[in-house]
Every structure is written in structure tokens, then in C-alpha cells.
């Protein structure tokens, strides 16, 4: 039987994109989740970046369970064991982190949960691998660029990489990343912008999500 960890990883690879955002508003967070889902998203990361992250996540989990049973809902920006435990208790499907914290890796590995740590250097990648990271987030990708992936991928043959930060909804940009050797891209403010959140531009978000998914299919 394929474990949940592998199913979620396969879903991220299939989708080729992991959308992520945080918003203080519970109602806004729910609308964005529904919009992404209707546009075709089946794996999604809410980020632990504000005081309302945990209550909002619990609400999103409730909506997911009622309306979107085939959606994997993960939590990002998990830097401490306390945060990991809080969101595991709230029912997260997977954990994403901006850093490599071995204590968080241990918690995830113990329960067979997918843990996606963020790395910026070959040393960090090596440490992440020691702690069984199947997928590694390259962050901040806008600083490192596709050349970084091209330069290090042979050092870490077989390792799956996903850049996050500065990836654009643009055929050339996406093609460059996938050609460099990534398996998926993290998509935050370039997809779910401040304008989308503050003005409720859900129609625009829907169109951009469909476009991003389509461009990724063509270019990965």
C-alpha cells in the first residue's frame, strides 16, 4: 500500500505547483481555498504567518472535509516542534518549513508525515537528506535562481527540489526552472497577491490559477 506521504508527494509532482498563502481573515482564507480548488488545485499549503493561522487552519480543514475530500491541505512556515504538534493536532496532511529543524523532521518522520524543509545551501540540503526529506524547498528562490539548481543537482542525484519565492506565472520563467531540474514550484504572492486578498479578486485568482497549472503542464 502506498503511504499517505507518497500519495501527497505524487500529488505535488503531478500538480507541478504548490500554492501557498496566509491571510488574517477567516472568510477570505476560505474563499481563496474554494477558488483554488475550483480552478483545479488538489494540494495546497496554508502558511503559519500570523496570529490567526491556527484557528483559520482549523476552519479550512472543516471546509475541506465537507466540500473537498480529494484536497491535501498542508501547513507551512513550521519552525518549531510546538508549531508542528499544534498543526498535526489540527489535522494537517503535511508540513513545509523555511528551515531545516531536525526536531521537526523527527516529529514528522515518527508519524510518517511528509516534511518539506527549506534550504539555501548544499550543507543544508545534505542535513535535510540525513533527516529523510523526500522533497526539498529551495528558498528564497528569487535570490538563488535556476542556476543554483543546475549547479547542485548532480551533487544530489535523485533529490527532488521545489523553488519557492519569485517564481512567475510566465512560460519562459517556468520553463527555465523546470529545465534547471526542479520537479514543482511553490507559488505564493505571484499567484495569491495582496490585491487578490485585500480586494477579493477571486475571478482573477481563478483565471491565474488555471493559467499557471496549464503553463506548468506545458513546460515541466
Automatic annotation (TrEMBL):
The keyword Lyase applies. InterPro entries: Aldlse_KDPG_KHG (IPR000887), Aldolase_TIM (IPR013785). Pathway: Carbohydrate acid metabolism. Pfam families: Aldolase. The keyword Aminoacyl-tRNA synthetase does not apply. Keywords: Carbohydrate metabolism, Lyase. SUPFAM superfamilies: Aldolase (SSF51569). Homotrimer. Belongs to the KHG/KDPG aldolase family. This is Bifunctional 4-hydroxy-2-oxoglutarate aldolase/2-dehydro-3-deoxy-phosphogluconate aldolase. It comes from Pedobacter fastidiosus.
Amino acid at each position: 500500500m502506498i503511504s499517505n506521504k507518497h500519495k501527497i508527494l505524487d500529488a505535488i509532482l503531478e500538480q507541478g505547483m504548490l500554492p501557498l498563502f496566509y491571510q488574517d481573515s477567516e472568510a477570505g482564507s476560505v474563499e481563496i481555498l474554494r477558488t483554488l480548488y475550483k480552478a483545479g488545485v488538489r494540494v495546497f499549503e496554508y502558511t503559519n504567518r500570523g496570529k490567526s493561522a491556527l484557528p483559520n487552519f482549523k476552519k479550512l480543514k472543516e471546509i475541506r472535509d465537507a466540500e473537498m475530500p480529494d484536497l491535501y491541505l498542508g501547513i507551512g512556515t513550521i519552525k518549531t516542534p510546538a508549531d508542528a504538534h499544534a498543526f498535526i493536532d489540527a489535522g494537517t496532511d503535511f508540513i513545509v518549513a523555511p528551515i531545516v529543524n531536525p526536531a521537526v523532521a523527527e516529529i514528522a518522520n515518527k508519524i510518517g508525515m511528509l516534511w518539506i524543509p527549506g534550504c539555501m545551501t548544499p550543507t543544508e540540503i545534505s542535513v535535510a537528506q540525513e533527516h529523510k526529506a523526500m522533497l526539498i524547498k529551495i528558498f528564497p528562490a528569487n535570490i538563488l535562481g535556476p542556476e543554483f539548481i543546475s549547479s547542485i543537482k548532480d551533487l544530489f542525484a535523485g533529490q527532488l527540489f521545489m523553488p519557492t519565492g519569485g517564481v512567475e506565472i510566465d512560460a519562459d520563467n517556468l520553463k527555465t526552472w523546470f529545465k534547471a531540474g526542479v520537479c514543482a514550484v511553490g507559488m505564493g504572492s505571484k499567484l495569491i497577491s495582496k490585491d487578490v486578498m485585500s480586494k477579493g479578486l477571486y475571478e482573477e485568482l481563478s483565471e491565474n490559477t488555471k493559467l499557471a497549472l496549464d503553463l506548468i503542464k506545458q513546460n515541466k
